Amino acid sequence: MSSSFSRGDHSVRVYIDRGGTFTDCIGIVNGQPDIVVKLLSVDPINYEDAPTEGIRRILEIATGRPIPRGTKLEASKIASIRMGTTVATNALLERKGERSAMLITKGFGELMKIGHQTRPHLFDLDIKRPDVLYSKCIEIDERVTVDVALGDDKDIGTTAQGLSGDTVRILKPLDRGEVRKSLQGLWDEGYRSLAVCLAHSYTYPDHELQIAGIARDIGFPHISLSSQLTPMIKLVPRGMSAMADAYLTPTVRRYIDGFSAGFQGGLGNATATRCQFMQSDGGLVDFKRFSGLQAILSGPAGGVVGMAKTTYDTKDNVPVIGFDMGGTSTDVSRYPGKFEHVFETTTAGVTIQSPQLDINTVAAGGGSILFWRNGLFVVGPESAGAFPGPACYRKGGPLTVTDANLFLGRLLPEYFPKIFGPNEDKPLDSQVVEEKFVELTRRIKEETGIDKTPEEVAIGFIDVANEGMCRPIRSLTEGRGYDARNHRLAVFGGAGGQHACSIARNLNISIVIIHKYSSILSAYGMSKAEVVHEVLEPSSEIYSVESLPRLRGRLSAMQKTASIELVDQEFRTEHLRFELYLNMRYQGTDTALMILEPENGKFEEAFLQQHQTEFSFTMPGRPILVDDIRIRGTAHDGRVEDELNLVNQISVASAARVEIGDPKSLAKVYFNDMGRVDTPVFDLNQLSAGAKISGPAIIIDSTQTIVVVPGYMATILPDHVIINAKITKIDEQREVNVDDTIDPVRLSVFGHRFMSIAEQMGRTLQKTSVSLNIKERLDFSCAIFGPDGGLVANAPHVPVHLGSMQNAVRYQHEVNLGKLKPGDVLVTNHPEAGGTHLPDITVVTPVFDETSKEIIFYTASRGHHRDIGGLGGISGNPNCTSLEQEGALIRSFKLASEGHFDEEGITKILCEDPAQHPGCVGSNSIQDNLSDLKAQIAANQKGSLLIRELFAEHGTYTVQHYMAAIQGTAETAVRKYLKRIVGLRPGPLKAVDYLDDGTEIHLEVRIDPVTGNADFDFTGTGPESYGNRNAPRSLVFSAIIYALRAMINEDIPLNQGCLAPTNVIIPENTILSPSSGAAVYTGNSLTSQRVTDVVFKAFQTCAASQGCMNSVQMYGGQRAKPGEPFRGFTFMYGETICGGSGAGPTWNGVSAVHTNMTNTRVSDLEILEKRYPILVKQFSIRHGSGGEGAHPGGDGSIRAFEARADMTFSISSERRTHRPYGMNGGGPGKSGKNLALLHLESGKKRWVNVGGRGIVQLKRGEQLWIYTPGGGAWGASEDVTISHIVDKKQQHWKGTGSLHTFAATQNES
């Protein structure tokens, strides 16, 4: 290499990915080989900053001159630096950001703590809700809202035109003097970073801007305004985004300042050196403009950009699936020719509202721990992490996926550096891994009698891991209507090459692409990225011919703003490109689509086309709203990139004949159906383009290991390795050898497949439904059932559906046996037919064998239909005393006959039949009802198709055999738990609790210590209620299955096996087994909670949680014209409200969170106020309402509403009289209360206790305040031994992407 070095064409371009463990650096100099440097991200003994050290090493190689460590680097030798960094991500995960304060509208000072009011994990009793990032919050006494047509308060306050076009009503102007006083107090306390988020500031930022001005006058160096960061509707995610930015940006700035100081004169003065950082949206930004909010997915974004730019070929436009497998997690993405963004996602427990690449992070990687549990092979989600790491790291770690690959010969210790063990000087430890697999194999044989080799056990875990990682890919493709087989699989990340062939085989993908820099693709992706600047503004326009010129005008102005910003960064105008977007949705829905302007400029046409693709339907005649207007401006540096020519290279290489030479070595590698075989090991750097290597083989270089399994061939291209199948997947059914032995590996794989089918059914239902309850709140469940109606797999969606759906399907199976034909679909909601309450409508589809004679399985979906008619136009009116008053009744109805949908029949049931009863009306939302029922049929059909594929692949006998076996694993887990309990507490477990009307619920649990069978005996429970507190028997099963799963605290299959060891005894004509025709509506939301409380009390598991869902429904407007009979309301809205959770032996209760049988999100106040004539006055924690004790109970909440027009409120609540019990000497939580602030004719006001349930009529300006119960405490306050038990340190999982958001929302249903 020449020692001379000059500027110009020979300057260095540096691309860096600073990861959590390693920092990858690539240096590119024209005319020289690429320089690759990989080093530890943290190594304080040798260097202060890994990227700076990486650049130093690159410069040494590029210039041929030694550069001593610690020397400030010459920026003049560097043309550009592009970096992705985990600085912000790590600060967020580890909660090591800046001490900051938050300012928010009065009444909502604790809103960021409450968030969506949901718990992260459905079955957790020890709830670990993410903490807020700020250290102090100040409430600002100001208030604005948005005018709505039905509002009757146009005479209050003043108005202004919002940025969105809405009329903003200023109810309380900003008091600048009070603001200054508050800010000065924060300054005096040492705060220097502020987050500001005021209600409706997305459209009216004036108050936030005034606060920022005052803060700057005082001297605050950093101020994050929600209105400037993400001017999108929804107070909670916008506030959390501002909170995150204030917390992270100072940390990011300090890092950048330190990095810049490593160069002579600093990078700020290096005019010839561009320094840019990767943002979460896949675009670069100048280092001076880089912020914490933009940095959260900085590193992974580089990998997606690299994947997209190195594997997607415009010659054939085949979409690409990105599979980035690392040590602790795997990132899955999809690139169809343009980057797919999400605008609201949750990272490390913080909801972020900002454009981010749709990167879906799942808890599966090389460090995922291997478990043998309840007869199943389980991989993760727990990870061994960096310490102790996998067993082979010589630090006492557990068996992991990495260990399985090492044991099978798929990782070669001789090609790894000797950096392991306490002194970090040893090679990977193969011996301890072998010993651990031998011991695990012995244990499996001891428990099952199945004789496997250690290698079969290890490969079994690999198979299970692969199937688990395929689930998110199926959801990202098939769950959205795309066939996974029509994609290429781009594999990158340190562990991806070991699993590439197996993942592709499972998904029937024919081509795998591995770039030469696959293990450092995040760094390489920086070289392919462009600088991006986004401009986003809110809108309230209805898309029409009249509004289009206004929208075009705003787009033009925003494009000019983006252009000025990019030109200011010294980019030439001809190097700029702009994408114009409208965020569009149908009126009456919440699901918006970000529509890129098509070539013909017709946004509406593009919206309809994408809506049809995404959701399988359009809604002709319904207005289309524009929520946001967006400009994405990109700029490049003028360099001409070589055009990707992958398709042509594959074609040329397929015809080439190239000698591959001798392998580097031979390794003993284990493969299915072959055992350990001598496998050639090739050095990638020694293989010429066009070389073809048939599996089995291993291809290695300094940073990656690629396993080519038998039946696959690797083809070497100049910059890629292409792997494809030489033989097609075996299509014949695998029934020739009928063996009743259950293989635990296949059982584990089938478990994943069954759950994947249930999940994809859910995605289909969400896509194709219309109503808010199903499409946005995801209040539904989907499941598959055996030929007898027994539950096989139910994704953990809504707790009250868990055990009850099986009862509904079995009822339909029994009453229709022998009467059904292919194409028939049944519908039911009746509590005597397995239903819970009438709005939960279940659609059941039988699936027949090839002869069309025998039912081989069922699929079913249950969705909550908001409007099914009822007394006074209210479905489930709290004043109902009989079932027919609660709405439409469907015991068993053939919704479709041989494929023909009976619209007339179901319309009569929903609209005409309820109106036959005195004071009742039918559904006023029949079109939504019909659309959602069709969506449920579509979901069932999706499940049927997927299971048919499973039957075709494995055979009817095998699939049904494993359907039964997976039920047995759940049964085993429950029996094991019950035996353990009876061993600890011999004798019956007894408990009693009360509803507020005095009704007793008794439970005695008698467990057989030998078999693990248990009687759940509710003898002694009080008689049925005259009102609608009655709970159908199916709800009792749901409560029991939920409680058992929560107490077992393991991820067991949710199916009929959970209840197999139980015998539930419920006397007839009690509140838990009411007579025919009894009203049951609130039994679903209230009595079910009390049953759960009784079960936990009997098992002495924990103190009682709030024991209520605090259901509030709001109605207004009249459908009937003056003089006509009442025909229902023009709008209706409902929500449930959080309370305190109960404490346990090792945990404190959590405040203002949903518990047990519910986990629904609360509507964001900005959405609520924009749609309905409602003002949310307060949403806060009810301090002091939790029980006192060694482990105190969580506090309840306070939520207050003010009517902006005359309205009707329906309230259904419990624990207003009987307090949530404490446990083991702990005090009870406080009971709740419901108060109304009413106006007297004299002008005075009065507070009225409106009781636990009933109908409340509010006039304009009157208010309803809901005070929810607190949770009970565990242990007496003076019990020091208990109070000193320390809660586990909270872990913040980096869940990201649309799949995580969907799963979280489904979990919160």
List keywords for this structure.
single chain; 1309 residues; alpha+beta; Nucleotidyltransferase, domain 5; Dna Ligase, domain 1; eight-stranded mixed β-sheet; seven-stranded antiparallel β-sheet; 28% helix; globular; disordered N terminus
Description of the molecule:
Helix content is 28%, strand content 24%. With 1309 residues, it is of the alpha+beta class. The strands form 14 sheets. Strands 20-15-14-23-24-35-34-31 form an eight-stranded mixed sheet, sandwiched between helices. A seven-stranded antiparallel sheet has the order 37-36-40-39-38-42-43, with helices on both faces. Strand 5, helix 3 and strand 6 form a beta-alpha-beta unit. Helix 2 crosses helix 7. The termini are far apart.
